[in-house]
Amino acid sequence: MADSRPCIEVLLTVWKDTIEAIDNGKLDHAKRLIMHADADLKELEKQTVLPQSSEGCYTQAEKCLSEKQEIPEMQSEHFADIQLELQPGDILQVQLTSRIKRGYQMPTVQLVHIKPKFEICVDHVNSPITCFSRSADIPSRTHYNDTKEYIRIWKPLCEMESAANAVNESDIVIIENLQVKFNQELEGILKGSFLLPLQWINEWAIEFNLRNCFLCIRKRGLKLETSNVETSKVETSNVEYSTLVDPKEFTWVAHGITSNAEKLKNGGSKVEFYISHLPMEDILKCIFQKNTHFTVEIIPKLIPDIRKENAVVNITSACDFVKAIALGQRIPREVKSSLNIVRRKINGLPALNQSQYHAVDKALNNTFTLIQGPPGTGKTVVGVYIVHSFFEHNSKKKRKWDDPKDKEKKEVILYCGPSNKSVDVVAEYLMRFKDSLRPLRVYSQEVEMLDFPFPDCKLQFSQRTLRQDRSKPELRDITMHHRMRQDQNIYSAQIKDFDKRIKLELHGLFSSRYKNLLRKARAYELQHHDIILCTCTQSSTPVLTKTVTARQILIDECAMATEPQALIPLVCNKPEKV
User: Fold this and answer.
1) How does residue 322 score in pLDDT terms, banded at 50, 70 and 90?
2) Residues 6+ apart with CB under 8 A from 304
């Protein structure tokens, strides 16, 4: 890089003195420290430097690209193909910010300009928690005083994980020239809103929840002048202390979190947000002007993270039994008559030993049971025996519900696990009793889409899921999205008709009818089965919570799940036993 722009090394002690001089307003002294840090600085300044125009810095790299190939106009209506070939020594324009390292403010890259109208925010990619959340101050505990304390401790932990996972997924939507309305009701609190027309939402297949998104809002092409700043502590012109390598324009950056998404009468959405991180202390006057347009990068939270956050927040409305489990409080024993386990071998399953029979007996006669053991000791088989016993008990004795809403739902046994693989192992055992126990394997819509894709479905789900998880062919007879298309389902003929036409683009009314038909078919299958097998995350999907209620809940490989993840099936149900 020495052949293309100035570059000097500064000792940490010199940098410390420079920062202190800037903090004290001694800019001349800070300038002298930098200028004398290297005797060869003047010679280096005579060399080629970055152009001052925000568009001129791409000439070398773009020249290399144009000699080899042209950039395709558009490969898809949803994606813009941006190509850039670089060689050692090529120049990229960057925008710097500061970050505290080892107790001192250190410069770090904030933006990398790839094209005149495209830049990458390195700031939130490297520090998603700083930009979209905050570091949790209190570690988790074994016991909690109340649900408020539980939420106060676990909510920041979940928010940190949500921010890191969403940014790491890189499943973003960038909208150029979006009109954003900012307002500042209180000092230090910046809020805003923007409108998304229905046409944009449909054309761009925006189906993620706009209430649960992170935002990176940028305003490029601003002139580097003190007059742009609303509150300037230093009266001296910024340009006076700008070096030759600094461009005369900059990009204003703010990071925010959506707080609400209201559907409008015309079908569009009004999205409200608040700013969580301002890399620049000064707020520009121009952002408050009417009809000001910004570049808005929308980063949706992942569905598993949303459901974990909801489980923690909704612990206040959970039943007393679930609250006692979460808070680490004493769980009362069941007063009702105990279930007598018949110690007999179930055909199609391995025989149990005395320790395993004892574990089954404890699970049947206690409201809360933890079965622990090394790998390969038959814990999953014990779980299948427990499910079999619960099924026999439920068929003989119906549950009395206090809430009238629960009476309308199908009573089931919910068998969960932290991953699809853990649930599939149990499903293979229960597959042997598909006619008597009526188990149903419920996969997520991401996995269902791999077997039965529909238009734009790849835009709506995690790309990692699309690469990794698939439904097991061996479980097809008890898998919900396959049974929906079999003759026993009253909606199967209509669904198969849509499947034949799926290669055609389905938009508007046809797409809505298809999705509505799938919802009805899923509800039909759930109402005709007694054992539901799914991941912990999938247990809170709307079609499940509205159609069934779990009388007993089993979580296999629970130690492999995080606490909020294991809490999901408990909070959205009112179980008798766990």
Assistant:
1) very high
2) 537, 565
pTM for the complete prediction?
A: 0.81
309, 159 contact by CB (below 8 A): yes
Residues 466, 457 contacting (CB under 8 angstroms):
no
Of 271, 275, 299, nearest in space to 287 by CA: 275
CA atoms within 13 A on the CB side of 307: 21
The answer to whether residues 158 and 312 touch, using CB atoms and an 8 Å cutoff, is yes
DSSP 560-571: GS-HHHHHHHHH
C-alpha 78/C-alpha 420 separation (Å) is 30
Compute the radius of gyration of the chain from its Cα atoms. 30
* Structure tokens, 382: 């014990």
Query: Is the separation of the CB atoms in 374 and 391 below 8 Å?
Result: no
Q: What is the pLDDT of residues 509-531, one digit of tens each?
A: 667 788 889 999 999 999 999 99
Mean pLDDT of the chain: 82
Which residues, other chains included, contact 82 with Cβ-Cβ below 8 Å and sequence gap of 6+?
71, 114, 115, 118
Q: What is the mean pLDDT of residues 115-143?
A: 90
Cα(first)–Cα(last) distance of the chain, in Å? 63
Residues 359-402: pLDDT tens digits? Answer: 999 898 899 999 998 888 888 999 999 999 999 888 888 887 77
Strands 93-101 and 104-115: antiparallel
Q: Are 532 and 438 in contact (CB under 8 A)?
A: no
| Sequence spans of domains, the chain | 50-126+171-301
Q: Which residues contact 353 (CB under 8 A, 6 or more apart)?
A: 378
